[in-house]
Amino acid sequence: MSVHGPVMPIWSCGGCGLPWPCQTRKRELRAEYADAPVSLALYLGSYLVQATEDMPWTSAGVLHRRFLGWTRETELSKPAVQQPSTATVPVEPNR
């Protein structure tokens, strides 16, 4: 378990005092969930729900970017890897 866990209800980082998830925790989460991006989104989504209850004065957009928006940044910055096509070209019938 990381020392960079959330301190609720203020949602600061227990390790560095920055808004949670801090950059250190984001790096840890990216590594931990590298092969499971949907699981990461579900995990952070549950925290997002709690945070909206704890901080009703904060706009939904700000909280969404803070808890979920960063999770796709690395996916969007990676170049797409083109896979070999499995499509087949229809053969014209002999006439």
Question: Any chance you could write out the topology, listing elements then pairs?
Answer:
Blueprint (H helix, E strand, L loop, with lengths): L5 E2 L4 E2 L9 H10 L4 H18 L5 H8 L5 H5 L18
Antiparallel strand pairs: 1-2
Low-confidence stretches: none
Range of strand content: under 5%
Amino-to-carboxy terminus distance: 70 Å
Instruction: Report on the biggest sheet.
Output: 2 strands, antiparallel
What sequence of helices (H) and strands (E) makes up the elements? EEHHHH
How many helices? The count is 4
Strand order of the largest sheet: 1-2
Estimate the global geometry from the Cα principal axes: elongated
Mean pLDDT: 85
Number of DSSP-assigned strands:
2
The helix fraction, in percent, is: 40-55%
Structural class: mainly alpha
Computed Rg: 20 Å
Describe what this molecule looks like in 3D.
The chain is mostly helical. Helix content is 43%, strand content 4%. It has a domain at 22-72. It has a two-stranded antiparallel ribbon. A hairpin with a 4-residue loop joins strand 1 (6-7) and strand 2. Helix 2 runs antiparallel to helix 3 (60-67). The radius of gyration is 20 Å and the shape is elongated. The relative contact order is 0.11.
